[in-house]
């Protein structure tokens, strides 16, 4: 079917706008990648835009030889795996209980959960609570305080409500209790929403640096994002304390700079979580929309 002139103009405008938005979104990431592959002393001269002028892998060699970065990767990977598993497991169990019509007082429980989405105790009470629980300077401070996600619970709960009651009744007739029904019927049917919320939870754990900056003093427990934050702060401090002439002189004496190392560290910490997306992309729309629509 041939489109009218105004429809074609509208389609062209929309495509141009989307291309511009895609460029604006992608270019900062691309520019960071270009700087990370460019010689640091050459980057300090400016003018790096779309391609490395002097290609090098030295920035990555320096970053990957740093023992702190390798330890940070270990902490981040462990935190992401353990935190995601426990959060999804605990939240899905909680959501299944909240989805049961025979649960007495579920309306009050849901109200209390909703309140936590809008109101919090604040940083100081949370800090005192974490210290009182003995989680200060502990790996479990990354996991336990965020083990229940109310937002994810609401999506799980809505999804569970849409599962045909006949399937659960059949499981009950076969002798399954609540646990058996949840593990053998409900959870296997919840693959899309489990995959989607697992990815969202994993990204939150991988990208978080704030918790470590508040509750962790042991350098061996710092995740890689916290180390990246330290690198960025060091870069900003060096730029503030040195004039341009001094920076140019130091850049000529070594092939890498704080900025080039910062960009390389940023790429090393960002690429692993990006690589997860293609494997779970097909679950996004189905998992989020099905879990968020109410019949």
TrEMBL record:
Family affiliation: Belongs to the binding-protein-dependent transport system permease family.
Topological category with respect to the lipid bilayer: Multi-pass membrane protein
Residues covered by the ABC transmembrane type-1 domain: 73-280
InterPro entries per UniProt: MetI-like, MetI-like_sf
Keyword Cell membrane belongs to the record: yes
Source taxon at top rank: Bacteria
Keyword Transport appears in the UniProt entry: yes
UniProt KW keywords: Cell membrane, Membrane, Transmembrane, Transmembrane helix, Transport
Listed CDD domains: TM_PBP2 (cd06261)
Pfam families in alphabetical order: BPD_transp_1 (PF00528)
Transmembrane segments: 12-30, 73-96, 108-127, 139-160, 181-203, 261-280
Protein's cellular compartments: Cell membrane
Protein name: Carbohydrate ABC transporter permease
């Amino acid at each position: 079917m041939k489109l009218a002139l105004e429809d074609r103009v509208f389609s062209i405008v929309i495509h141009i706008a989307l291309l511009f938005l895609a460029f604006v979104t992608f270019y900062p990431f691309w520019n960071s990648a270009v700087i990370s592959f460019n010689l640091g002393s050459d980057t300090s001269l400016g003018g790096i835009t779309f391609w490395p002028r002097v290609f090098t892998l030295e920035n990555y060699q320096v970053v990957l030889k740093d023992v702190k970065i390798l330890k940070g990767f270990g902490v981040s990977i462990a935190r992401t795996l353990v935190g995601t598993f426990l959060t999804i497991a605990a939240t899905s169990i909680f959501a299944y209980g909240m989805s049961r019509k025979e649960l007495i007082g579920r309306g009050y429980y849901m109200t209390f959960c909703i309140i936590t989405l809008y109101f919090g105790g604040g940083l100081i009470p949370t800090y005192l609570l974490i210290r009182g629980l003995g989680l200060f300077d502990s790996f479990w401070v990354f996991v336990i305080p965020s083990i229940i996600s109310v937002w994810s619970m609401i999506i799980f709960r809505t999804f569970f409500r849409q599962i045909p009651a006949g399937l659960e009744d059949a499981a009950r007739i076969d002798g399954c209790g609540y646990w058996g029904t949840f593990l053998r019927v409900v959870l296997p049917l919840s693959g899309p929403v489990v995959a989607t919320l697992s990815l969202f939870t994993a990204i939150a754990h991988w990208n978080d640096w704030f918790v470590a900056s508040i509750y962790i003093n042991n350098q061996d427990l710092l995740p890689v994002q916290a180390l990246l934050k330290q690198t960025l702060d060091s870069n900003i401090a060096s730029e503030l304390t040195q004039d341009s002439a001094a920076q140019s002189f130091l850049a000529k004496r070594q092939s890498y700079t704080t900025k080039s190392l910062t960009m390389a560290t940023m790429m090393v910490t960002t690429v692993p979580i990006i690589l997860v997306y293609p494997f779970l992309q097909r679950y996004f729309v189905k998992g989020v929309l099905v879990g968020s629509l109410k019949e």
